[in-house]
Automatic annotation (TrEMBL):
InterPro entries: DjlA_N (IPR007791), TerB-like (IPR029024). This is Co-chaperone DjlA N-terminal domain-containing protein. Signal peptide: none annotated. Gene3D superfamilies: TerB-like. It comes from the Bacteria. Residues 100-224 form the Co-chaperone DjlA N-terminal domain. It holds the Pfam family TerB. SUPFAM superfamilies: TerB-like (SSF158682).
């Protein structure tokens, strides 16, 4: 059907755009789960590549190159750039947070040497609150003992180096997705475990400094937060 020809120029242009256009043919190249910023939740997605073509009367005629890779939400159908995949799903984020709290608790307990009942209770309560519902004081004590047996055997030192690596592995991927109060609260939980059996020891300070650095909290703020944790509020 030919467009109607009106007396004004823009009517003719509108008619032309109905004649000519571009159409994108999408091909699915992968799928997975992501956090959809469109409908706000963990959803399945398809990763799409598209080939654009000029169309004449709706019929593709000329290739016009590739469109940017696109992610399509299976629930709302909206399209996004692939950078949305950098954002962890809610499930993944919760798991990262839980692992972070668990690793920080172990690092601080191990730095403290022999675990007092008070430190273990503070640590286990924090780990349970973070999502490991059935974490017990005994489990943490056993893990700390195993860590010490494992690393102390080689270095003669209390597992500092090995734990620094563990801390970075658990905290580095999490830090960019947490706002400052979230990062500070993980450090403060560690500080409370260290303080449960008395003032910070040098090894506990070192462990907490490593936690702060992995969470990208600057050393001035780490010092301020560790002092604040010591002051009973
Ligand atoms: Zn969606």
């Amino acid at each position: 059907m030919l467009p109607e020809r009106g007396p004004h120029g823009h009517t003719a242009a509108a008619g032309l755009s109905r004649l000519l256009g571009t159409r994108t043919a999408w091909t699915a190249v992968g799928d997975g789960e992501f956090f959809c910023p469109g409908c706000g939740g963990d959803r399945n997605y398809q990763r799409l590549t598209g080939r654009r073509r000029f169309t004449l009367l709706g019929v593709p005629v000329l290739p016009r190159g590739e469109s940017a890779p696109t992610v399509e939400c299976a629930a709302c159908g909206r399209h996004f750039g692939t950078d949305v995949l950098d954002h962890p799903t809610t499930t993944r984020f919760a798991a990262m947070l839980r692992d972070a709290v668990h690793t920080v608790a172990l690092a601080v307990l191990a730095a403290g040497g022999v675990c007092s009942r008070a430190s273990l209770e503070t640590a286990a309560a924090g780990v349970r609150a973070a999502g490991f519902d059935d974490c017990t004081e005994e489990q943490l004590a056993a893990l700390v003992e195993a860590l010490e047996a494992d690393t102390g055997r080689f270095t003669g030192e209390p597992c500092a180096a090995g734990l620094a690596i563990e801390l970075h592995e658990a905290l580095d991927p999490l830090a960019p997705h947490l706002a400052a109060p979230g990062r500070e609260s993980i450090l403060l939980q560690g500080a409370r475990i260290a303080l449960a059996d008395g003032p910070y020891t040098p090894a506990e300070r070192d462990a907490l400094a490593t936690v702060g650095a992995a969470l990208t909290i600057c050393s001035t703020d780490v010092t301020r937060l560790l002092a604040a944790a010591r002051t009973p509020s």
